[in-house]
Amino acid sequence: MKNRQFFGFLHEILPFRKLLLSMLTLVAFLTLWELLPALGWIDPFFTSSPSRILRAANWLFAHGLWNDIRISLSEFGLGMLLAIILGILVGVLLGWYRTLDAMFEPFVTMFNAMPRVALLPLIIIWLGIGMESKVAAVFLGAFFPIAITVMKGVRMVDENLLKCARSFCATDWQVFSTLVLPTCVPFLVAGLHIAVGRGLVGVVIGELLASQAGVGHMINKASTSFQTDKVFVGIILLTGFGYFLTVILRQLEKIFDTWRADR
Amino acid sequence: MRRTGERMLAIQDMNFSAQAGKFVCIVGTSGCGKTTLLNVIAGLLQPSSGQVLLGGNPVVGPGKERAMVFQTAALLPWRNVMRNVTYGLEIQGYSPKQARQSAREMINLVGLSGFDESYPRELSGGMQQRVNLARALVTKPDLLLMDEPFASLDAQMREFMQTEIERIWLQTGQTTLFVTHTIDEAILLADEIIVMTNRPGRVKSVISVNIPRPRPHSLKKSVEFHAIEADVRDLIQIEFDELLRQYPRVRI
User: Fold this and answer.
1) Looking at CA atoms only, how far is residue B140 from chain A in angstroms?
2) Which among B67, B74, B120 has the least Cβ separation from residue A160?
3) Which one of A35, A224, B4, B54 has the fewest beta carbons within 10 angstroms of its own beta carbon?
4) Model pTM?
5) Domains of chain A by range and CATH?
């Protein structure tokens, strides 16, 4: 009860004051992170500190971190692109043709239930430790959420709209392009949200496991020589990238949510 | 006729004709097959036997000479009013420019000028039904089919839309088949009222409404209105009593 009263004022304050509060806790956290090791209360060997991380970042950017970022980004981008194209294609096919769905449903369910990280050693045997295996890891993570949500979207086409299109003598292709595809879009965006997270996990784990370059590779290399500062640089980079994508997708979701039929 | 998985006979031996330029209303107890009849005429349902003749030609499927106004507005949520109204024309292969031009006229006619760019979610139920109507009218069908288009509107909006429908009908002379279960709505709008029997639906009676137009709502207080209303109500009451007698064999 006391708690609720304490936080109750949050409902009344202006948005910018809410932002101010968020910023304050963030600054407080960073200050503690900096101060506690400096005061000798905790060992920076394990926790590092903001200033150490900044220094490490400076050094890393001067010594090839850009290349690691470029590699990781292209692995992630290529894998996502493949997952989006094939995910939409497969999702539409499975959603539209009941026969195909009956044929492939066990595979989709099995693959979706499988912890696909377990496939990575196999993929590395097949594709080697270069970029290809990481592209495959991203693809495996991102493909299924996209295909499955698109498949659901195809089946969510409003009966009434179908009747309306048919009353105007719409061909199958017209029904598909004017009703099925637009219905899928909000579902696709929701699927992308999950896919982006899974894809990021794919690229990082792939690079941690076996690689020659990339942010995950850098993290792995730094950790084996106990350079926590550099490890933190990698973690922060990945977090920032994930956050950036989440914000973009949230905006997209807001836009396309209005495409859902009222029911 | 197969509906919801079980076979039942919704309509049997229904013979009636709708003359060009007339406004014909179909009334009957709920579940008597009114909507089924309209869907068969629209070509959205295949009759298990028999046929619908339109201008002497049998109906085999949906056709450009018929257009349907649905009970739910059935608008495309990702299209604005203009693009919803052009939807039917687009599907029938008109050029976008031509479609937009006809659509603009129709949007004005149904009283939605200035709402071209609005999206369905921004419109009231009555306005959504106007878009629904415009989308059907703009294809210039020989026969307009309306399936209880005001069923989901509140009473006030309903009365307002009835007046609007008559105004639009007077301007277009559109041959219309209008299904409703509201008797006074039928009398206000129709040249001819077809009363259907219970399932399997047949024509029980055809009643002409010879009240001059336009027919304001105040007409409901007049003697002639009451006389027709009593006739129709009696006919439907007989059917309804019959339905109750069959209860519980028949679900209402």
Assistant:
1) 12
2) B74
3) B4
4) 0.79
5) 63-259 (1.10.3720.10)
Cα separation, A132 vs A191, whole angstroms: 24
How far is the alpha carbon of B70 from chain A, nearest alpha carbon, in Å? 8
Q: Three-state DSSP class for A210?
A: coil
Mean confidence (pLDDT) of chain A: 90
- Please answer yes or no on whether A160 and B70 come within 8 Å at the CB atom: yes
| Residue numbers in B near A188 (CB within 8 A) | none
Contact at 8 Å (CB) between A131 and A76? no
Q: Is B46 touching A (CB cutoff 8 A)?
A: no
CB contact under 8 A, A164 and B42: no
The answer to whether residues B153 and B119 belong to one domain is no
Q: Where does the pLDDT of residue A91 fall: very low under 50, low under 70, confident under 90, or very high at 90 and above?
A: very high
Q: What is the pLDDT of residue A80?
A: 97
Three-state SS annotation for chain B:
CEECCEECCCECCCCCCCCCCCEEEEECCCCCCHHHHHHHHHCCCCCCCCCCEECCEECCCCCCCEEEECCCCCCCCCCCHHHHHCHHHHHCCCCHHHHHHHHHHHHHHCCCCCCCCCCHHHCCHHHHHHHHHHHHHCCCCCEEEEECCCCCCCHHHHHHHHHHHHHHHHHHCCCEEEECCCHHHHHHHCCEEEEECCCCECEEEEEECCCCCCCCHHHHHCHHHHHHHHHHHHHHHHHHHHHHHHCCCCCC
Nearest residue in chain B measured CA to CA from A260: B77
Same domain, B134 and B153: no
The amino acid at residue B1 is M
Share of chain B above pLDDT 70, in %: 92
Angstrom distance (rounded) from CA B218 to CA B226: 12
Q: Which two tokens stand for residue B244?
A: 């109750």
Indicate the residue of A166, A167, A182 with minimum beta-carbon distance to B67.
Answer: A167
Residue B252 lies in a domain: no
Query: The domain containing residue B105 runs over which residues?
Result: 77-140
Interval A108-162: pLDDT, tens? 889 888 888 889 999 999 999 999 999 999 999 999 999 999 999 999 999 899 9
- Residue A48 three-state SS: coil
Residues A203, A72 contacting (CB under 8 angstroms):
yes
